[in-house]
Amino acid sequence: MSQPRVPGGDENALELPCGETVGVGELDLGMREYECDCGETHAVVMDVHPPERFLPDFLVEVLREAIETTSEEMPEFDTPHLLGVVLEEFPEAVVSHDASENADVGYAMVWVTEFDSRRLHEVVVELVVELMEHAVSHADDDEALSAFEQEMVEFDVSEFVEQYRAERDLEAEDPYA
Fold first, then answer.
1. What is the top-level taxon of the source organism (predicted)?
2. Which residues touch 167 (CB under 8 Å, ≥6 apart)?
3. Chain centre to alpha carbon of residue 72
């Protein structure tokens, strides 16, 4: 979890989950991973990255229709909400930085995880599936819940992420691919 800034502290540095630091200016809009001095690769997500980085368009549309947010700044379900769920579930594995006052970086929020981008992708999908199951369980429709649970027994998160990443070609030059 990001630490509160102390007077005289470096507002342009972010302490990573591993304890290393990185300058917020070193994190550019196209970056999906950061090769850290600790020897690990950390996933990097920014508020400007679309949620379609992790989920198909149709599912993002469903989530936007189904989920009411409480934020006036972000009234529509988006990437910050996805990373908020990850941060809530893994508070020690995710750090965030509010760069909204720093016009030099091009993003307002950034999250860096102890996971690499592939593992983060799996975590996001797993948490969205849990969110969907929770929503279906509140529908008071045992048949729908049973059908959903049966589908999820057959759903392989790792295989989904593999196919989705290949389809989206996340390694391409386009930061929004």
1. Archaea
2. none
3. 20
